Queue: 2 jobs
Job 1
Amino acid sequence: MNKAIILAGGQGKRMKADMPKPLFKVLGEPMLEWVISACEKAGISDICVVKGFKGEMIDEYLGGRYTTVLQAERLGTGHAVMQAVPFLENDSEGNTLVLCGDAPFIDAETISSALKLHEEQRNAVTVITAELDAPKGYGRVIRNESGISGIVEEKDATDEQKAVKEVNSGAYWFDTKQLIALLGKITNENAQKEYYLTDTVSLALADGQNAGAFKSENPDIIKGANDRRDLLELNTYARMQVIDKHLENGVSFICTDGVVIERNVEIANGTEILPNTMIKGNTKIGSGCVIGPNTVIENCTVGNNVTVNAAQAYDSVIGDNANVGPYAHIRPDCNIGKGAKVGDFVEVKNSNIGEKTLISHLAYVGDSDIGKKANIGAGAVTVNFDGVAKSRCVIGDYSFVGSNASLIAPVKLGKGVYTAAGTTVTKDVPDYALAIDRGVMKINEGYTLRKLRPKSK
Ligand code: UD1
Ligand code: CA
């Protein structure tokens, strides 16, 4: 069966952080995850990640999803792959893909097309290459009349070789059995005293086997990051690629400043995204919505014709025609009904809000189930936490919770209940009743004049 090895041993010193480079994020996901998802999309799930610097962080991130092996010393890309020989020997039928964990834009299409060429040509190794205007730093692909003859690293290259613009992407297909044999022949006799995986090309040819190159049409697949500046560039590139996909699908942007949409987000046509808006995770947004400005939405399902203005929403469902914001916060596990309003300075958490229910201003609704067409007044609060435990409030359909009312959970209001403004609701209220809890207001006439009158001597 075909399998993959992902090289993720690098530290990335120039990142100036105590973290393996492949864990740095592009559009919210570690570069390693981009590479893994390209493998998975190409149908390769048997993956071994070679870890090195802070390898435990790679294990922690992967959470047991894939095999990992440790490269204790960083002696080159060939040495890194040698660490995975037991993984290769588990099942040495078929082919092995080798990828770099810090080049996130390799894609399933390139992987599959290169495999096709690799199999057609019966190669021991097929290098994925690209033409770069600025090839500096990359291994150069050396060709002769009969095909490729080898890969030469920048540090080992002659001036003539340095002029070559076709470079090694760092991604390869190998015949697994041949790879195991070739790894045994790599030496470190070169400028960097490293075991170069790239030497497998000339070694295979010397052994009378085939070696080939698959040149990608898209040179961007080889982009990687050495420092934070490069990482910003990768983010900018990915961000614009994603925005471009949505433009193609009929999503509008009047200005893309501050717009960051992660790659798994789905947005239907006719929706408009306004500036300074981040849409993250597995968010799905329907059509005819206006999202932003100044908004964050993460892992939400948003219906059609919804407005979310200057608000944040996480791990929740927002129904068709709902209005959220400005300055609203929908915390995880909410279900906002169709046509409902979560207005200015309203926070909602772990709650179900019924259809057309209005929470227009200055309210906190936590751990609550509110029916349809209810009205929650300004300053109303569900008091869901007694300092030890959280409890729920239930508010029936058509209820009207007055301004500044506090509902002390657990408490249940029936259908069509009114609670007077300022009422502290401490017990259940039956359908169609009014709950009122208020001192008698007194008027003390002339009070101010008496208070301020000068004292007589
Ligand atoms: C390598 C290739 C070069 C190619 C370039 C593409 C070799 C000898 N050269 O160069 O031809 O153009 O990639 O980016 O392979 N790694 C380890 N352990 C090591 C060394 C590297 O795990 O001992 C990992 C790194 O973390 C990285 C990948 O292998 O993910 C590539 O290593 P890097 O040092 O970036 O390779 P280059 O020398 O730049
Ligand atoms: Ca290097």
Note: The CA atoms of residues 135 and 180 lie 30 Å apart.
Job 2
Amino acid sequence: MYQYAASLTRLIEQFARLPGVGPKTAQRLAFHVLNMPEEQAAEFAQALLDVKRQIKTCPECCNLTDVVPCRICGDETRDRSVICVVEDAQDVLAIEKTREFRGLYHVLQGAISPMDGREPEDLRIKELLQRVSDNEVKEIIVATNPTIEGETTALYLAKLLKPIGIQVTRIARGLPVGGDLENADTATLTRAISGRREM
Ligand code: ZN
């Protein structure tokens, strides 16, 4: 059977490993790279390596960062008594865009999902508990996604945190159920944060 040259096949295979990219799209992307000027292809390859080499996890909030601590944790003007807990780095960006929230974040790096084999110990929950016990945190806003996994995670966190005397709130409903925080528009997200309720 006829096959593409080995290097082209390899590139197609690499694209096909990306989420949401099927074999046809992978092929189209690989041909696009093939037709790029060489310096553009070099910039693309360099950008891939740079994110892997330069992006670290903030030791305080577990967000992605290129400086330690991250710019939010390092910002003296932010309110340290309230921590907004989110699933991933994209959610931090979405909430920052609202300009509604001036506290700190904690990035869980996922949500509890037994079906996918993601248990509480696979998330950055231990780090959150450590932060809560070390600092004068008064409120935890749980801003996990309005999905089954996000709600399960929110309940789990409330059960852990409330007995140690922390006020736990959940962002208001109104976000599309089953959707992701990162896809919510800024106005909806602003209302969800300001309308948060005690869990
Ligand atoms: Zn941080």
Note: The mean pLDDT is 92.
